[in-house]
Amino acid sequence: MVGLSTTEADEIGYTQDGPTLIYMDNQSAIQVVKNPEHHGRMKHLDLRLFWLRDEIQKGVISVKYIPTDFMAADILTKPLSKVKVVEAYKQLGLQS
Fold first, then answer.
1. CDD domains under this entry (predicted)?
2. How big is the chain by its Cα radius of gyration, in Å?
3. 85 CB burial (10 A radius; 0-12, 13-18, 19+)
4. pTM metric for this prediction
């Protein structure tokens, strides 16, 4: 395999002891990616869902529920109140 960039080459050379853990705050989405029985009702979703489901079944990725209040990544994806921003800073180990 040939990396097309330094970053990609570094990623190709990286070995991992366990699955990549993805934290999600949407329990319905977790059920969809973990349960193949939802396929008939989810035909409108694209192939990325099926790739993710395959990776979970192979043990490459693991999905875990985390309540919204503990989702520190929200500061990177949506506008938050000042209180939530301060809490996210604490969760990320940053100073406000």
1. RNase_HI_RT_Ty1 (cd09272)
2. 17
3. middle
4. 0.65
Burial class (CB in 10 A: 0-12, 13-18, 19+), 49: middle
Three-class secondary structure assignment of the chain: CCCCCHHHHHHHHCCCCCCEEEEECCHHHHHHHHCHHHHHHHCCCCHHHHHHHHHHHHCCEEEEECCHHHCHHHHHCCCCCHHHHHHHHHHHCCCC
- Domain borders along the chain are 16-65, 71-96
Dist CA 96 CA 90 (whole Å): 8
pLDDT tens digits for range 25-57: 999 888 888 876 655 666 666 666 778 888 898
